[in-house]
Amino acid sequence: MIIGIDDTDSRKGMCTTYLCAVLVDELKKHGYGNISTPRLVRLNPCIPFKTRGNGAVSFEIELSVEKERKEREVKEVVKARVSELSELREEGTNPGVVFIDDHALDRIRGKENDGMLKNFYENAVREVMKIKNAYEIISNLHLDYFALKNKRGLIGALAAASFLVLQKTKPNYYDFTYELMAYRRKERWGTLRVIDEASVRKSDAATYPLTWDTVDVANNKLVFAPHSPCPVLFGIRGDSVDAIYKAYEHMHAEPVEREKLFITNQGTDFHLIKCEEAKEKLQDYHSYVLDGVVGSNPRTIEGGHVVFSILLSGKTEERSIECIAYEPTKGFRDIIRKLRVGDEITVFGSLKKKTLNLEKIELRKLNLVEERNPRCDKCGRTMESAGRLQGYRCKRCGTHRADKDSVIVDSGVEEGLYEVPPVARRHISKPLVRMRMEGANRKIHPGR
Ligand code: ATP
Fold first, then answer.
1. Taking the domains of the chain in order of start, what are their residue ranges?
2. Is any ligand 1 atom within 6 A of the Cβ of residue 87?
3. 269's torsion region: left (phi>0), alpha (psi -120 to 50) or beta?
4. What is the pLDDT of residue 14?
5. What is the pLDDT of residue 76?
6. CA of 133 to the centre of ligand 1 (A)
7. Does the domain spanning 177-264 belong to CATH 1.10.4160.10?
8. How many CA atoms within 13 Å lie on the side-chain side of 191?
9. What is the pLDDT of residue 113?
10. What is the per-residue pLDDT across 160-191, written as a single tens digit (0 to 9) for each?
11. Would you say the CB of residue 54 lies under 6 angstroms from ligand 1?
């Protein structure tokens, strides 16, 4: 049976991954059966209802003997823990749980209904869904579920369960990574986290790039621990389970209550809708990869954010949109400030209020030609305009030139891919160092 869970936490406490870890350990302890590595899926990062990273979880439990009775018992344990541990007093917490038992799994496979789950998972990462979209599938596939308050958590719960169903049949269909989460002892929740920074930096240096987004070296910050009162002490993200555990073993910190390894879609860029797949009209709360040419020189606005416009080359209705690199993206803004009108670029990010919030940028072809007033051949001074459509002249020497000079400039930046630093990275965004490890044939400038 596959179990998906979402929306149990609030900014004041709890974490759905912790609830999942508690459940997995409890069910294991009671010997209900083998339990898979749990999944942590990050859904549409623009959704306003999210608490933090829009995460949802799922796991599979294999019940061998007395299946039906055990299934009933497992469901009761899950419902009890979700009811007990969810932050139900908080307005935005609307828990949802979806159960896909073996009968339902047979139905899904038999009628090739996994296409329905595939679409649901992909839409939950890229689109804005309604609770009724989850209900339609739940009722079509006769799935059992449990939900509280406005039941919005069913969206994430079904998406997380769907991801696991799909990974079961095609393990490598979706790109995935790992995160090892360490959880705090209850008496420490809400207190300052005790983590030995030096040991974290050493572990990071010894395992990067197989682990990533632990330390932001450029900004001199640990980025693997939250600052909220939630039960998470820290999470080590990476592509290699061995490297993650090696890093973990060498870190010194307060004693943990438990730890749990998750398979996750973090660091994969799965939220990005490619140019060619984008609908004709770009929509807010969606994330895109868009090609175009810089249409206006970048300018720094109040708050230190940097904005410029891009003239789009795709088939979208909009011919041009604004792009923004927010102040928290720190050094990334220095790259953006060096853009010049005419640079051919690809932008990656989420659209909000018709402005693309930049996560990455590829400088595909820099416009290095600058038109300047010509210099006088005799005295070397810059010539002045001789009037509209009348070329340029040197007042002193009386020389004349018809056109401007084309000069090759050094824009101070190299072509290639750039990203926001780890301190500003969304969970689902793919670190450029992962592209490098995949052997991408592009110039890559990791931002850490
Ligand atoms: P945390 O990361 O700490 O677990 P969170 O950021 O995941 O918190 P949730 O508390 O899970 O936030 O709230 C997100 C809510 O949005 C859930 O109810 C989830 O079902 C819903 N949701 C997720 N993806 C979408 C989507 N694409 N469209 C509409 N609703 C969504």
1. 2-169, 177-264, 272-367+411-445, 369-408
2. no
3. left
4. 85
5. 96
6. 14
7. no
8. 9
9. 67
10. 999 999 999 889 999 999 999 999 999 999 99
11. yes
326 touches ligand 1 (CB under 6 Å): no
What is the second-level CATH architecture of the domain 272-367+411-445?
A: Beta Barrel (2.40)
Alpha-carbon distances of 136 from 120, 155, 220, rounded to whole Å = 11, 11, 48
Check if 229 has its Cβ closer than 6 Å to any atom of ligand 1.
no
pLDDT above 90 coverage of the chain, percent: 84
Q: Where are the alpha helices (DSSP H) in 51-141?
A: 67-85, 102-110, 114-126, 131-140
The reply to whether the predicted model has a pTM over 0.85 is yes
**213 token code pair:** 């987004």
Look up tokens 């998406």; give the residue: 159
As a whole-number percent, the residues of the chain with pLDDT over 70 amount to 99
Residue 89's identity, in one-letter code, is: R
* CA 163 – CA 36 distance, rounded (Å): 13
> Which ligand 1 atom is the nearest neighbour of the CA of 6?
11
Instruction: List, for residues 7-42, the tens digit of each pLDDT value.
Output: 998 788 789 999 999 999 999 999 999 999 999 999
Calpha distance 174→304 (Å, rounded): 37
Average pLDDT over residues 246-256: 98
For residue 138, is pLDDT > 90?
yes
Three-class DSSP labels, 5-72:
EECCCECCECCHHHHHHHHHHHHHHCCCCEECCCEEEECCCCCCCCCCCCEEEEEEEECCCCHHHHHH
The protein residue whose alpha carbon is closest to atom 5 in ligand 1 is: 54
Q: Tell me the CA–centroid distance for residue 244 and ligand 1, in Å.
A: 27
Could you tell which of 17, 46, 49, 91 is best to mutate to test the pocket of ligand 1, judged by most ligand atoms within 8 Å of the CB? 49
- According to CATH, what is the number of the domain 2-169? 3.30.70.2200
- Distance, in Å, from the CA atom of 203 to the CA atom of 251, rounded to the nearest integer, reads 6
Locate tokens 């230190």: which residue?
Answer: 304
> Residue 111's pLDDT is what?
64
